[in-house]
Amino acid sequence: MLASLANQRASSSSASFTNSWKHDVFLSFRGLDTRSNFTGHLYSALCQQGINTFMDDDELRRGEEISSTLLTAIEDSKISVVVFSKNYASSKWCLEELVKILDCKKSEQLVIPVFYKVNPSDVRNHRGSFGDALANVECKYKDNMEKVNRWREALSQAANLSGFTLLDE
Prior knowledge:
Order of helices and strands: HEHHEHEHEHHHE
Helix content: 40-55%
Oligomer: single chain
CATH topology of the domain at 2-118: Rossmann fold
């Protein structure tokens, strides 16, 4: 996976784009699930390869709405890597990031999903922990079903992208 991102960086740096990217990679992940293990190690490995990677910290997650810093970081990235983990869909922040990432995908951004200990079909079809999380979100946001439906659609779209699956063996 790391080699694939490095190759993408090399080929995109030689191409002429209208956007000037501030970050090579934006990492979207559920902090409680993967910050201290998979995503933390991925971030370190990308940085060691000279790949400019944005990984948020807990300080950015203040308040109810997704911060403008995160939205700007997504927009300013050439590639977004979305690490789907068991509790990803239970985070409104992650779901909002995913919607923004897929919006940016429409204009040049490459999106690479990583299914970390989850089955892509569970993400796509909203089963297992993803189904449970969306049921909870639906109850919480029953007055804003348009938002919930955007999140559902974003999960399905992202799960249909070519990516990497890392299941327990």
